């Protein structure tokens, strides 16, 4: 059918209470419903009941009773779930599109006016057919959380916000989940006014390859948690220069990403920020970094060495391994590194971070010259470590320390290890023997998954195990021997 605009049929007026508690009038009897706000002397578009594929939402309206006034708002749920309308034209005058206005509808295109200022939360969420959004030139629009969530046909988006100091428009943000699940989104053009990318803003945008103006936006300072999670088509990221924080999981599972040169202003990198990226082979750490989560670069199979600006006052790189500046703490070993000699650090290295060797390709490592008292949680989990020599100073082995690693055997009978954490030696499919002296405590499921071919020996009385976790050997079939 041909495009249809408002046909005024003022047959009936009824009084309604609006969402903000004001008394309003809604005109019914037409395919288009508009509500009059007497206090503001404006109308809101509230519903469409026709079956036209193309409709126009008026910018001004006369209900025959209250006179001609602007239509400033497209109300909540006005076209929710509508499967008839495919194309929407919004006339000049409309300022706000309220939350869930078009959610789960079948619209394919929408044309928006220069007057529009706000697109509220989930306004176009789950509009799986929406592929074309036409903004007026020089628009400045604020977008709410989840505004375009799961718009799976949307391929390109140019963020419509132009700085206008006279109008008080200085900056904006890409809010949480704004484009999450837009699996066809290939290209996104950033406004120079964007100061923050919110949590999960581009979550699972698996086709995203082109971040236009991302590297030139001098106002952008923060990238939120999970913001580019599973953006598996991104191959390269040129960061904006003034970014100060990158949140947890921000670029997690971006499996096509090849290299990362971090922005000079960056001070903090969150947990798993760049983790699980199979192709990432080059990372250059900047001079101003203050905080790096030990899991920030976890499980990067192609990464053989970190590099760092030597002017950084908080971190250092020795033989490709990331440490703190005074070389007392080992933070992360690149997963792709195949050998490691820590002899030069014998006089300084005292601790290691959790997950330090997680996923490491190294098969043999000698820590005997170090002054380390604890192997922390998950330190060697999922690694290829087959043989390890531990220092005489060792007192504690943390939870999941060697979980799912390739460890073949370990004899700690000469060491006074006091505590073995939960799941510390669980899921060791290649292990043949484990020998300990007399630990004071063994955590739950510490040896879970060991088979009957494994010899598990404790050089202590069996009665001592009464102080251990009640389920320390749960799901363990190993041949357990106690000998005083």
Report what the structure shows.
- This protein is mainly β and 484 residues long.
- 0% of the residues lie in helices and 28% in strands.
- It contains no helices and 40 strands.
- The strands form nine sheets. Strands 1, 2, 3, 4, 6, 7, 9, 11 and 13 form a nine-stranded mixed β-sheet that branches. A six-stranded parallel β-sheet has the order 15-17-19-21-23-25, with no helix packed on it. It has a four-stranded parallel β-sheet with strand order 5-8-10-12, with no helix packed on it.
- The radius of gyration is 30 Å and the shape is elongated.
- The chain starts with 11 loop residues before the first strand and ends with a strand.
**Number of helical segments?**
0
What's the main sheet like? 9 strands, mixed
Mean pLDDT: 92
The residue ranges in which pLDDT falls below 50 over 5 or more consecutive positions are 1-29
Q: Radius of gyration, rounded?
A: 30 Å
Our estimate of the beta-strand percent is: 25-35%
Structural category? mainly beta
Task: Characterize the overall form.
Answer: elongated
What proportion of the residues is helical, as a percent range? Answer: under 10%
* DSSP strand count: 40
In whole angstroms, the N-to-C terminal distance is 91 Å
């Amino acid at each position: 059918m041909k495009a249809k605009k408002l046909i005024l049929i003022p047959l009936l007026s009824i009084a309604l209470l609006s969402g903000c508690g004001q008394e309003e009038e809604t005109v019914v009897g037409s395919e288009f419903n508009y509500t009059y706000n007497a206090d503001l002397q404006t109308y809101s578009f509230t519903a469409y009941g026709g079956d036209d594929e193309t409709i126009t939402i008026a910018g001004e309206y006369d209900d025959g009773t209250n006179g001609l006034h602007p239509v400033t708002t497209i109300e909540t749920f006005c076209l929710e779930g509508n499967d008839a309308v495919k194309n929407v034209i919004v006339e000049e005058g409309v300022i706000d599109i309220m939350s869930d206005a078009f959610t789960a509808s079948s619209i394919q295109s929408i044309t928006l006016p220069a007057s529009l200022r706000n697109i509220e939360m989930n306004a176009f969420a789950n509009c799986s057919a929406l592929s074309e959004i036409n903004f007026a030139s020089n628009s400045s629009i604020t977008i709410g959380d989840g505004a375009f969530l799961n718009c799976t046909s949307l391929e390109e988006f140019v963020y419509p916000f132009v700085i206008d100091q006279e109008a008080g428009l200085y900056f904006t943000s890409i809010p949480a989940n704004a484009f999450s699940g837009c699996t066809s989104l290939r290209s996104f053009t950033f406004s120079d006014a964007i100061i923050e990318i919110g949590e999960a803003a581009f979550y699972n945008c698996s086709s995203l390859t082109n971040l236009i103006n991302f590297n030139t936006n001098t106002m952008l300072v923060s990238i939120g948690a999970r913001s580019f999670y599973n953006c598996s088509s991104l191959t390269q990221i040129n960061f904006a220069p003034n970014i100060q924080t990158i949140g947890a999981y921000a670029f997690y599972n971006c499996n096509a990403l090849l290299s990362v040169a971090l922005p000079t202003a960056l001070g903090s990198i969150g947990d798993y920020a760049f983790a699980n990226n199979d192709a990432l082979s080059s990372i250059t750490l900047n001079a101003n970094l203050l905080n790096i989560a030990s899991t920030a670069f976890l499980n990067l199979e192609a990464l053989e060495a970190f590099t760092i600006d030597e002017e950084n006052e908080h971190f250092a790189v020795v033989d490709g391994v990331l440490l703190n500046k005074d070389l007392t703490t080992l933070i992360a070993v690149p997963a792709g590194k195949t050998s490691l000699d820590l002899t030069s650090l014998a006089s300084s290295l005292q601790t290691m971070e959790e997950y330090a060797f997680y996923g490491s390709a190294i098969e043999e490592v000698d820590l005997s010259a170090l002054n380390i008292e604890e192997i922390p949680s998950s330190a060697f989990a999922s690694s290829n470590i087959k043989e390890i020599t531990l220092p005489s100073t060792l007192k504690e082995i943390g939870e999941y320390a060697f979980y799912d690693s390739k460890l073949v055997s370990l004899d700690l009978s000469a060491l006074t290890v006091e505590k073995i954490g939960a799941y510390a030696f669980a899921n060791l499919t290649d292990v043949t023997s484990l020998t300990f002296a007399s630990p004071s405590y063994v955590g739950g499921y510490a040896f879970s998954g060991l088979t009957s071919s494994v010899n598990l020996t404790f050089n202590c009385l069996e009665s001592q195990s009464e102080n251990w976790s009640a389920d320390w050997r749960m799901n363990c079939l190993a041949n357990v021997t106690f000998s005083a």
